[in-house]
Amino acid sequence: MSEMESELSTRAFVRQQLVAERAAPIKTTGFVGFLRTRLFNSPTNILLTVGGILLLWFTIVPSVKFLLFDAVWSGKDRTACLAETVGRPVGACWPFIQAKFSQFIYGFYPEAERWRVDLTFVLAAVLLLPLLIPRLPAKGLNAGLFFIALPFVAFFLLYGGGLKGFGISWTAGLLSGFNDSIGDGGGNLATFSQTIPAIGPLLWLLGKLLVLLSTAVSYVLWPLTWLRDQIKASGSPMWVDFAATAAIVSLLLFYLSGGVRTGWRALIVSLAIFAGIGIVISVMGLDRGGLPVVDTRLWGGLLVTLVVSVVGIVASMPVGVALALGRRSTIPLIRIFSIAFIEFWRGVPLITVLFFATYMLPLFVPAGFTIDGLMRALIGIALFAGAYQAEVIRGGLQAIPRGQGEAASALGLSWAKTTGLIVMPQALRHVIPGLVNSFIALFKDTSLVSIVALFDLLGQLRAAFSDPVWATPTTLFTGFAFTGIVYFTFCFGMSRYSLFVERRLNAHQRN
C-alpha cells in the first residue's frame, strides 16, 4: 500500500448512526393539494376563500331551500301555497307555474292551434342540431333549409294564411307600389309649392320631374304588370305564377352559369328547389287559403322571446358584416353612410328604437302597405343589433394582417373572394366571444318588447301575476325564479357552445 493510500484510509469517515427522518414533502396533488396550493396558500387567499364560502352559504343555501325543500309541488289554487294551510314556512309555489305553463310558452295563442307552435319548435330543433355538430355532413343543405326555408315555413305555420300569387305578382306589386308612391309624392310636392312663393317654382319643377319619372318607369314596368294581370285572370293564378317564376328564374340561372356548356347543374338545382317549394305549398294548402290566421297580438311567452331573439340574431349578422365592410370602404359615400348609420343606432337606447319602429316606421312605407306590429319590432331590433355587430366584426377585421389581402391579390383573387374566403373567416374567428356576448345580450333585451304591447316571456309572467287565484306572498318570487332559470339555460348554452367552437377553430394556436 502506498503512502497516499494509507493516508486516505486513515482520514476516511464512515457514519455509525442513521440519519434522522425528515418530514414528508407537502402534497400538491389531489383534493388536499388543491386546497393547500389554490385556496389556503397565503393569508389573502385564506380570507378570500372564507369570504367566498360565506357568500355561497348565505345565497345558494337559502335559494335551494326556497326552490326545493320548502317548495309546494301540488295544488289547485292559492290556498295550497299559504303557510296557514301547509303548517310551515312556504317556499316556491310551483303549482302556479304548472297552472300558467302553457301561457308562459304560447301566450294567448288559441289552444286548438298550438300544435303549430310545437311543430315549429320541432322543425327548428331538427334543423339546428345538425348545424351544431361539426362531424355531420351536408352542412350547406342544412344551412339553406334552416336559414332560408324554415323562416317561410315557420311564418305560415305560426301566422297562417295562404298565397294568392308568387314571384311575378310580388315583384310587380312591390315595384308598381313604389313607383306610384314616387308619383304621388311628386304631385303633392307640386301642390305644396304654391304655398311657398320663395322657392315655389323650384319645388314645382322638382315635383313635375318626379311625376315624369314615375310615368316613364310605369312604361318600363308595363310588361311585368301586364303579365301579372294575365296571371290573375287565369284559373289557378297562384300555380301559374309559380310555374312562370320557376321558368324565368331557372332559365336566367342557366344562362348566367354558362348556358349549354356549364349551366345544367344550376338549372337542375333551381328546378329541384322550386319542386320542393311546390311540395311544401301543396302540403300546407297555401294555394287554398292555408291555415287559419292567428294575429301576432295573440302571440306571447317563450314563443315571442324565441322569435324576436332568433330573428334578431340571424338578421343582424349580414347587416353587421355589410356595415363593417362599408366602414372600411375606400368609397367616401359608402364609408360616411356606414359610419352615420352605426353611430346613430348605437347612440339611441333600444326602447327608443322600438318606439320608432312601432309608431313611426309605417309613415315611411308606401300608401296602402301595412307592416305587422311584431314585424316592426323585428326590423328595429335587427338594425339596432346590426350596428353593434358591425363594430365587433370591424375589430376582427383590424386584427387581420395586411399581408393576407396582399397575398390574395398576388394570387389574382378578386376583392369579393379575398373578403369571403380569406379575410372574413379569420376575422369572425377572432371575434367569437364578442359576437356571442352580443347574442346573449340581445336574447335578454327581448324583454323590452313588452313596452310596445308584445308579451314575451317576462311580460307574460307579469300579466299572470294579476290573477287573484294565485295571489300568494311567494308567487312573485317563484315566477321570477322560473324565468331566471329559463334565461340562464339559454344563455349558458350559448356561452358553452361558443367556447367549444372557439377551441375547435383555434386548435392551431394551443400550446
Number of strands: 2
Distance between the termini: 62 Å
Task: Report the order of strands and helices.
Answer: HHHHHHHHHHHHEHHHHHHHEHH
**Strand percent estimate:** under 5%
Strand order of the largest sheet: 1-2
Low-confidence stretches: none
Shape: extended
- Rg result: 33 Å
Q: What percent of residues adopt helix (DSSP H or I)?
A: 55-70%
* Secondary structure category: mainly alpha
Given the structure, what is the number of helices?
21
Mean pLDDT: 85
Largest sheet: 2 strands, parallel
Supply the key terms.
1% strand; 511 residues; 21 helices; mainly alpha; single chain; 70% helix; extended; two-stranded parallel sheet
